[in-house]
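Sorry, can you check?
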Amino acid sequence: MARAPQDLVFTMRFLGQSQEILHNHFRNFLQARLDAAGVTPENHPLLPFFIDSHAVELRDFVATGVALARPFRLGEIEVLTGDVETLMRVDIWDAIASHIDMAEARFAEGIARVVATLTAAEAEIRGAAT
């Protein structure tokens, strides 16, 4: 945790109605621009799906950009929360250690499947080469 002040950054995440408002904004924007260009669902039946998926991408682009533009360092969060005893650092370290243990256990449980997949893929490559 000694590197936490330099390496740990908190970012914002938009949740709930904010996401929907931004999604609707981009859906309307895309629809208006495509309409102005003469691109309609009558000519392109998949257009509504295109608009919706691209509205999600634009929403995520904006949300990520805002989150990355203003990160909060651990020291700033500790000041904001009044965490003078740096208990948050202990909680974060415990969460990291717990997730490392979980990731390693899940990998160990699935190692037989990994080996089987590798063996099958290698056999397929060898079969294609002959």
About this structure: The CA atoms of residues 33 and 39 lie 9 Å apart. The helical segments are 4-7, 17-36, 47-69, 74-81, 87-109, 111-129. The chain has a mean pLDDT of 89.
